Amino acid sequence: MPDQHFLFIGAAVLCLCSPALFGMDRTAVQTSSPTIRHIDFHGNTTFDSATLSKRISIKPSSLYDSQQIVFSQEILASIYRDKGFHDVQVSTQDIPVPANQFDIVFDIQEGPLYRVRTIAIEGNRLVSTKVIVRDLAIKPGDPFSQTEIYKANKNLFLSGYFEAIDIHYSSAPVHQMDIQVKVRERPTRYLKGGFGYGTETKERVSAGYEDRNFFGNEKQLNLTAVHSGFLTNPQKYRTTIVEANLAQSHFLNTSLEGQTSLSEEWDDRLPYDARTTAWRSSLGRRFGDHITSSLRYRFQGTHLTQIDLSQAATTPPNTNISAIGPTFTFDDTNDSFLPTTGWRISGLLEKGFTLGIGDIDFQRFEARAGRFDTVHGTTFFMGLQFALVRPDHPGDTIPIFERYTLGGANTVRGYEQQELGPRDAQGNPIGGNAFAVGNLEVRHALYKKLCGVWFLDGGQLYEQPLGDSWPSIRAKGISDFAYGTGPGLRLNTPVGAVRLEFGYKINPPGNPDFLHRTAIHFSLGEVF
């Protein structure tokens, strides 16, 4: 028992003295921890030492860690294999030096460069082998790379032509690789049809035919017919469109995408009835994952009947439009249907010219920018829209069917379609030459794919008086804009976001009653 008391007292004394003693020990341990003095590479000819140093996880002056050295060794091997050095071997030497440090030397035996020998395609019946090999972006003679194999699989999947893709590779004599691609194709021909309703088009019936491999080489043919607005108010909304569209993702086997369409459209509107025949063509290209740009040309002839007397003096019954200009889009949002983060930006410049085929010289500019951000499950959206169209000569006017209208589900909610802007003596909308719109929105999930929304929109439409060079834009104060706000629902579906929104006019002219301050909007797709 006395011995036990003595041990207990001794332990207590040690505990009382331990802070200073243990502090000295920790300093000693920290000082004695080995570090890396220098890193070197031997045998590397394909990559310089500076490039390899940036890729590995260890750095000079860092603590010596055997696991990180092994990990860096594996990184170096994967870098070489990804560039075709399938037999690469990497070993290390840990050389102790004074001051408790190590020099690390990576010995690299690169080995021979493996190249692609053959590419075999199986399972394709409708999509040609030539097209598949082109989309693979791998050619015989290229260095063999697993990263390129991954990209090839992704390219084939995104083309939309295949239900299943299986890529195998095996070594061949003289340091070569054989690649075998097995695909299972999707159907490429479809008959389509549908019936729907939206606040812009009203009731809508459509029918169409699609061939996604028209005459091979990934050409896409779409034939569509749409009839809308025939029940609600035919004199104001009725529209019939028949269109044929042909698109090719690799125009003339280049990285350009070509598209052309022919259409016939019949419109019944309150100020006029119109029949328009149009040809549109564009040639564009994708730059990276987020940017696309194109050059677009359109020629359209429009014949007006039932023209309102107030518009007959400035809008002739027959007008040909010939115009060309570039387009630009940037989209890095995380979801094409219901985004929660990212930017959406688009712009268009168009120059209308006569040169014997057009009837008016004009300029058009359109721009939109929107930003999505999510904080703690709530998505915030802010967007701006601006557009301007003006004739080159102040004595000319822009035809009524080329002007802008404002109000509705995609501009200022709370106002009906075409409700904002100038009107003729009978109260019919006649459109404007410029508009500016701002949209704010807050969205939060309610139940699974159903979201609740609250929005605030503001904007105005402006006209260009005859003889003036520019539209008379009046935006000196907040009160110069028309505002709408209200709640809504957003349902995420496989074909896009279905929107139902109740809008309320904040500052309408004339102070109308509650019923005339409201508008219900039902549509498909985001505002942007």
Essential attributes:
528 residues, alpha+beta, 16-stranded antiparallel beta sheet, 3-stranded mixed beta sheet, 22 strands, elongated, disordered N terminus
Kindly, what is the distance between the CA atoms of the first and last residues, rounded to a whole number of angstroms? Answer: 85 Å
Q: From the alpha carbons, calculate the radius of gyration and give it in angstroms.
A: 34 Å
Reading side by side through the largest sheet, how are the strands ordered?
A: 7-8-9-10-11-12-13-14-15-16-17-18-19-20-21-22
Uncertain segments: 1-31
Structural class: alpha+beta
> How many E strands?
22
- Tally of helical runs: 7
Shape verdict: elongated
Question: Helix and strand string, N-terminal first?
Answer: HEHHEEEHHEEEEEHEEEEHEEEEEEEEE
Biggest sheet statistics = 16 strands, antiparallel
Helix content: 10-25%
Residues in β-strands, percent:
over 45%
The mean pLDDT is: 90
Describe this structure in words.
With 528 residues, the protein is of the alpha+beta class. The protein has helices at residues 2-32, 49-55, 66-82, 129-136, 146-158, 234-237, 309-312; strands at 35-42, 89-97, 101-109, 115-122, 162-172, 176-185, 189-198, 202-211, 219-228, 239-248, 257-268, 273-287, 291-305, 318-331, 342-352, 362-375, 378-391, 434-447, 450-462, 482-493, 496-505, 518-524. The strands form three sheets. Strands 7-8-9-10-11-12-13-14-15-16-17-18-19-20-21-22 form a 16-stranded antiparallel beta sheet. It is elongated and about 95 Å long. The N and C termini lie far apart (85 Å).
